[in-house]
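Input (structure):
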């Protein structure tokens, strides 16, 4: 085991990992400079605390004081038998491109990429992309180093996906990015990084899947940067399917030029502690941004979804819908901000957060926000939280449906609205089944 022996706190461990990287990395000059600047920034920032407004409800202390190991490339073998038991693994049989990463490192034997000479398309592991112009232009420029988590990822990320679509290029099949936390012997700190660049008129469908194997905990700190050029179209789905002992801090930053459209779908079905940051920057006129989210929480699970949509230019459109079902002593947070700059006239921006509580001990802290500095706009926001509608349940029971089935029907319909918004058809049926099984299992345990 090539594990650096350091003090318990992740802050101290990061210093040891950074020193080791300096000895062994062999990084090019530009990458070394970027990483060094980011680590200096991390040392200034540290990790966020509840004294910061954006982290008011999210105490990261419990995920930092764990003796994490640093994953070493090729240290673990991912067996086909283990992979076949992971959630949604049958999707690997779907007609698409697949990149598999284990503890942050690319696994070529499990991956299927486009032909090397695919016109206008470059898809490769990020660690092999430093010679690409798009890498040099965009890496660490879209995701601002607003928190220690982002800075630390920029300094110490291992690998991830690099996708560059030249002007007018179309990725003909969905791209599935599998991130496996394999923690059978050690608790790992895992840091993937993804860079997606779609030039003018390009289009792609991308799915990130986070799954886990093993009984030890893990902390995944992932950053994804998406650049959408003029008239580009990007569909981005993130599925969080890790287990009850996994922690996850994820950040996705999207930069949009004139006339581009980016749809996002964030579905969180498991995980002990999850913090999702999703930030949009509309830098050109007539951009469209769609933000759909679904989360199912139980036991003492914690999830915090933070979104920010910056309307910086006129005539842009954004629509957010996040829905949650919470049971037992779980806690959810939704903080969504729409920021309309003075020049962003004729903005249309909408935001809703809708929650169902299945237990008196479950809690949701919801804070939809509008900050508007233009006068010709149409913006709305709202949040609702409540229990299942007893009148609707009574109606279903009056039609011969048992109470348990009536409740399941209503919850599946509630979640199904988000699933139906997915633009990749291959995801809908397996996700619908996975959600139905999860809801039924929870109801049977409660009963």
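Output (sequence):
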């Amino acid at each position: 085991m090539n594990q650096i022996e350091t003090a318990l706190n992740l802050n101290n461990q990061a210093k040891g990992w950074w020193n080791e990287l300096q000895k062994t990395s062999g990084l090019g000059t530009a990458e070394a400079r970027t990483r060094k600047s980011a680590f200096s920034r991390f040392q200034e920032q540290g990790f966020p605390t509840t004294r910061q407004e954006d982290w008011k409800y999210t105490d990261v202390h419990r995920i930092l004081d764990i003796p994490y190991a640093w994953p070493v490339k090729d240290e673990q073998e991912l067996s086909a038998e283990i992979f076949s038991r992971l959630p949604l693994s049958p999707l690997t049989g779907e007609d698409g491109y697949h990149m598999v990463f284990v503890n942050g490192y690319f696994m070529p034997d499990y991956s299927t990429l486009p032909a090397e000479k695919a016109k206008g398309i470059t898809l490769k592991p990020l660690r092999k992309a430093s010679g690409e112009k798009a890498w040099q232009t965009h890496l660490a420029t879209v995701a601002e180093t607003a928190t220690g988590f982002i800075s630390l990822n920029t300094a110490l990320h291992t690998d991830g996906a690099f996708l560059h679509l030249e002007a007018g290029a179309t990725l003909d099949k969905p791209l599935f990015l599998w991130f496996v936390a394999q923690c059978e012997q050690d608790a790992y700190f895992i840091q993937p990084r993804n860079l997606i660049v779609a030039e003018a008129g390009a289009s792609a469908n991308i799915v990130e899947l986070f799954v886990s194997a093993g009984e030890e905990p893990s902390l995944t700190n992932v950053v994804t940067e998406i650049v959408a050029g003029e008239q580009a179209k990007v569909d981005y789905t993130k599925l969080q399917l890790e287990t009850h002992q996994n922690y996850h801090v994820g950040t996705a930053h999207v930069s949009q030029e004139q006339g581009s459209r980016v749809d996002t779908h964030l579905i969180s079905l498991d995980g002990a502690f999850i913090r999702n940051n999703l930030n949009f920057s509309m830098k050109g006129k007539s951009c469209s941004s769609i933000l759909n989210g679904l989360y199912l929480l139980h036991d003492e699970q914690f999830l915090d979804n933070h979104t920010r949509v910056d309307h910086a230019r006129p005539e842009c459109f954004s629509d957010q819908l996040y829905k949650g079902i919470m049971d037992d002593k779980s806690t959810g947070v939704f903080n969504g901000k729409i920021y309309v700059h003075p020049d962003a006239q004729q903005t249309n921006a909408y935001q809703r957060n809708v929650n169902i509580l299945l237990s008196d001990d479950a809690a949701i802290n919801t804070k939809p926000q509008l900050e508007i500095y233009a006068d010709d706009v149409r913006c709305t926001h709202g949040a609702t939280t409540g229990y299942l509608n007893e009148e609707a349940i009574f109606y279903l029971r009056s039609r011969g449906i048992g109470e348990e089935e009536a409740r399941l029907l209503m919850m599946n319909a509630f979640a199904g609205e988000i699933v139906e918004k997915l633009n990749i058809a291959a995801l809908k049926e397996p996700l619908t089944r996975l959600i139905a099984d999860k809801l039924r299992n929870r109801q049977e345990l409660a009963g």
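Notes: Residues 4 and 16 are 7 Å apart (CA to CA). Confidence is low (pLDDT under 50) at residues 1-8.
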